[in-house]
Amino acid sequence: MKYVLVSGGVVSGLGKGVTASSLGVLLKAAGLRVTAIKIDPYLNIDAGTMSPFEHGEVFVLDDGGESDLDLGNYERFMDVTLRRDNNITTGKIYQAVVEKERRGDYLGKTVQVVPHITDAIQDWIERVAHVPVDGNPDGKPDVCIIELGGTVGDIESAPFVEALRQFQFRVGAENFCLVHVSLVPVLGVVGEQKTKPTQHSVQTLRSLGLMPHMLAVRSTGELEKSTSEKLALFCHVPTSHIINVHDVSNIWHVPLLLLRQGTIGSLNTVLKLNMSEATVTRELTQWRLRAEKWDQMTKKVTIVMVGKYTGLSDAYLSVIKALQHACIACSVKLDLVWLEAADLEPVDSKSTAVANCGPDAPPPDSDGADGESIETLEARHTKAWETIRSADGVLVPGGFGERGVEGKILAANYARTSGVPYLGICLGMQTAVIEFCRNVIGMPEAHSTEMHQATPNPCIVFMPEGSTTHMGGTMRLGSRRTILQTMDSTAAKLYQSASGFIDERHRHRYEVNPEYVDRLEKAGCRFVGKDETGRRMEIMELDNHPYFIAAQFHPEYKSRPGRPSPLFTGFILGATKQLDMFLQSGS
């Protein structure tokens, strides 16, 4: 087993995940079986309870593991299926060690960070690295890529750094390669590429007992020869092992960038492999065409995403990637417009503190509930409706909590009544059902019990098996089966499932109330996908509409660059008026 460790220095967010994923692409193209492990040095057991604003999206795995978004990068780039144990956190390690201590497994010894925590980390890595990722019991990986989260020198990552220092000797020099991702900035005034940040980062790494074999240097432009030579001199890394990961037009160029700079030869030298650069180049032909196609497409499709966490694009990273995959398949350039759901709501509903405070209410030109003037809120409201009316398609993704839900309901109403293609995901399906109950069936007070526990028309309810006392890992999570109720539906035609069922990943606590299903279906809201019991609604769609489909599951999690999600593909086809032709031809 060979191990490639990817660490980072200077600042976070340099692209360690993309670098690690790109290395995996090259190794797979060379014919090796590859797996990946992400180390997150936070005390949370997993990412499930973290705010999207702080940490980005929570990526859900087949086995229900809630993980860091980098595992999504690994799955998409390397086309593998990972498990919850492929994401290591400080919380998981300490939990495992403390449980062993409580059982008496340490036989009275004093339990310490070294050796007990560091041994647990090494044992975890070795155990997970040997687990097959392709479903074949005999297909054990040849290479394990390990990404160490954070930056070298962080106090919380110290136990992991020490464990990895020991690990290099456990597995042997020929089986361990350290790739350090660092930054070479250019100061605007001087205009010179500065190597000092990387020098200090490598110095810190070496002081901790880890010697980088390769540098992946991030920069805006191409690295100058003199800069590479300086880095080689002061970082003790051959110039041939310095890879310049400069900015590119799209991330699919990154593996090609690594390939052109001799990464295959460097990995062969360090890990004593015999990979053929010619073979890798040939195997990446489709990858290269995809990267070039994305840059060359000119016909645009405007998709408005009505979300709750639009302040951070990483909160919807898998949704964005799934849209990109579908756009490449449909040969259109994605014009993604972000729209804060709350901005679609009437200003009065967002400024209750101003409008309904009784006789002591401040004057109308005072700040609203969000600390903004009424004029500012009204201007945002007007702009929001101008934005959604410019859309070729409206996408309402998942989310939790009451904020912005009325805006999502209004977006679903606009798409339904205006004939604009609509794709709802998780909460996006629930808001579509609420809208249908209110405006088609005639239940103006219909709502979800998540937002209004006492609603007289609870068309969305808490799942019976859900926990009301614990949050972490208590939702309906992971891959679940959806039975297609009829093959005469747009969803079934898009999935082209000969077996009559599909497996998609879920992450939710609330669902469509089974008691409302008959009334919804009689009114024209068809549930064309249900779970194996027939009581849990998975896919809804409307007839006599260009494209109105919503799913309780998250189809974005299983979308791949070469195999886009069927529901996303149908959405883009509908938005570009190609859906009918596709459904007739099946291609």
What does the model show?
- With 587 residues, this protein is an alpha/beta fold.
- The chain has two domains: 294 residues, P-loop containing nucleotide triphosphate hydrolases (Rossmann fold), CATH 3.40.50.300; 269 residues, Rossmann fold.
- The chain has 22 helices and 21 strands.
- The strands form four sheets. A nine-stranded mixed beta sheet has the order 11-10-12-13-21-20-19-16-17, sandwiched between helices.
- Helix 1 runs parallel beside helix 3, helix 1 packs across helix 9 and helix 1 packs across helix 11.
- The longest helix is centred in the first third of the chain and has 17 residues.
- It is globular.
- About 3% of the residues have low confidence.
- Its EC number is 6.3.4.2.
- Catalyzes the ATP-dependent amination of UTP to CTP with either L-glutamine or ammonia as the source of nitrogen.
- Pathway: Pyrimidine metabolism; CTP biosynthesis via de novo pathway; CTP from UDP: step 2/2.
Summarize the structure.
This protein has 22 helices and 21 strands. By secondary structure, it is of the alpha/beta class. The chain folds into two domains: 2-295, P-loop containing nucleotide triphosphate hydrolases (Rossmann fold, 3-Layer(aba) Sandwich); 297-352 and 373-585, Class I glutamine amidotransferase (GATase) domain (Rossmann fold, 3-Layer(aba) Sandwich), CATH 3.40.50.
- Look at the structure and give the CATH class of the largest domain: Alpha Beta
Overall tally of structural domains: 2
Question: Could you tell me the number of beta strands?
Answer: 21
- Main sheet characteristics: 9 strands, mixed
If you consult CATH, what is the topology of the largest domain? Rossmann fold
Q: How far is the first residue's CA from the last residue's CA?
A: 41 Å
Strand order of the largest sheet: 11-10-12-13-21-20-19-16-17
Shape type: globular
Number of helices: 22
Percent range for β-strand residues: 15-25%
Low-confidence stretches: 351-369
Structural class designation? alpha/beta
Under CATH, the homologous superfamily of the largest domain reads P-loop containing nucleotide triphosphate hydrolases
CATH architecture assignment name of the largest domain: 3-Layer(aba) Sandwich
| Rg over alpha carbons | 26 Å
Give the helix proportion (percent range): 25-40%
Overall average pLDDT: 91
EC number: 6.3.4.2
GO molecular function, one term: CTP synthase activity
Region (Disordered): 352-372
Function: Catalyzes the ATP-dependent amination of UTP to CTP with either L-glutamine or ammonia as the source of nitrogen.
